[in-house]
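Lab notebook, page 48
Experiment: co-folding of the full assembly
Goal: obtain a model of how the components sit together before planning crosslinking
Operator: M.T.
Materials (sequences as entered):
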Amino acid sequence: MTTVAVKPATMAQALTRALRDAMAADPAVHVMGEDVGTLGGVFRVTDGLAKEFGEDRCTDTPLAEAGILGTAVGMAMYGLRPVVEMQFDAFAYPAFEQLISHVSRMRNRTRGKMPLPITIRVPYGGGIGGVEHHSDSSEAYYMATPGLHVVTPATVADAYGLLRAAIASDDPVVFLEPKRLYWSKDSWNPEEPAPVEPIGRAVVRRSGRSATLLTYGPSVPVCMEAAEAARAEGWDLEVVDLRSLVPFDDETVCASVRRTGRAVVVHESGSFGGPGGEIAARVTERCFHYLEAPVLRVAGFDVPYPPPMLERHHLPGVDRILDAVGRLQWEAES
Amino acid sequence: MTVMEQRGAYRPTPPPAWQPRTDPAPLLPDAEPYRVLGTEAAAKADPELLRTLYAQLVRGRRYNAQATALTKQGRLAVYPSTTGQEACEIAAALVLEERDWLFPSYRDTLAVVARGVDPVEALTLLRGDWHTGYDPYEHRVAPLCTPLATQLPHAVGLAHAARLKGDDVVALAMVGDGGTSEGDFHEALNFAAVWQAPVVFLVQNNGFAISVPLAKQTAAPSLAHKAVGYGMPGRLVDGNDAAAVHEVLSDAVRHARAGGGPTLVEAITYRVDAHTNADDATRYRGDAEVETWREHDPIQLLERELTARGLLDEAGKQAARDAAEAMAADLRAHMNQDPVLDPMDLFAHVYAEPTSHLREQRDQLRAELEAAAETAPEGGTHR
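Observation: model returned without errors.
Model output:
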């Protein structure tokens, strides 16, 4: 028997396979959105699905985000499991009324009679040189809405496993896809069976003793790089990939922070009113007596997402993370 | 001499791709609202149907009066009356088969009740003990929708899904004149027409969106005219003529069920009461206008037709009134009972499995309730 060398898959290909496997496993799964059919999506995540499953299962809709999500609500009411694509983060805003007024609370307002198993795929974040309205990190809006799960993968395997779990969930899931990791590869072999990851569990990507970097999505590889660089400074950093913002894995996060006594939250989204504030507050409330320093945040600036030629100044990079880690030597400074 | 008449001038041709997609003429509504009562068309109407409509209108009018009275007694937080609009409400419920779906707006409690939902459960939202009191699947009635027009795309999606599954289900979605200005109205009609979804859109044009009159809402010749822009037929009907509304909606439902796609129906009616009990309608309209509409009352129109044709006598009227009064007495009795609420329900249905922070908050409330129970006197209130 000869072994054939298999090229590692990209995150985009893992997402495609997750969609294809979910559609093959359950005829109720329907993919819909602008350009998802013939074109296969502007990032090719839905490539080949219309051909394989027909245009009724993978549907090019009119260009209208509220209509895409609003009709998905009705389809879910009738027993389907729609997976909608919002194409770009800032294009999702017209659908916010449907998301907030209906998708997130239909289970609640009907006392559990009408759950809506809808997956909302939102390519998000910057770093790909996109023009205005193509690089927002909107996770704080979704996190602030009760009734929604908010999930974001950082690895190729998680992209597969978490999307399968999102589609299988009986609750609506906002599935945030880090655009600049679409073409990333890791050791995941697309021919091997891939695990379905349960939603709501963070994972320690790198163990360390000096401090914990709490991060998710596009900032995970940046934090891993920062952790490598920090070794030269004598810091042994732990990196926790949150993977799920709602539900939030307090257990894994607090176990790590209690071990290290120091934490920095890293994300692209703005700092003020952003996810880091919630995470820092939760960690402080639960781990205060273990902390050697305040929980710090390294985030995007509180400005509208900048034009592409300036985004490198905005996005949290290795140096900014290392600066924050340096500031964690709180006792020495005070 | 114009530019085009000059020697050697460029002669325009249509762009290569241009061709009309749909002949607009058959989609356009008639110039006048369609009517049956008092016209020759009434002779063709089924007497049994007319008598059923009459009994339901009388019941509906009484329901509106009783619900409004309950707001004055503090039993309902708010009630948006459909007095004067009962023909639209009743017809919307009666044209649907059991397997079909109704998508009501917050004003359409009466249609929900006429569809078979328990009158007390239909008022749960307006009383304030929960957001939706009934199981939407039991009678295939979507929750009463408070945001304007956002239920319309749901109706399109549900009808589309049913058709994909091979079920001949029709969705009827109700919206007011103000709701036609919302973006979701546009997106729903566009999706429905592109997908040829079996949906009927019923616009109850009752003259006002709270205080704003139709003339400030739209510059269209009629709301039914909007249909042609989406590629679906628009129908204009006298919304106070129960027989006409029933006929037009029945046609639209039949058309949708047969695979003919969606229809937009505009029913011209009038909201005789204020927007809700919290509104003062005298600030934006005069008594004279209301009076002219009282003379075009849906119950009176039908009663005159039935009486003239010998289909209704005083005993028949009394029977309809008695049935309505019994419904009102029953509703009153049930609404005067305090609802029994469980505060822990706050956390019961946010997610299939509560998240860790919801579990913590649930424990907090339970502890608060237990502490309160220990200090409360015997028979303490649950509120």
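Interpretation: Chain B has 14 helices and seven strands.
Next step: discuss with group before ordering constructs.
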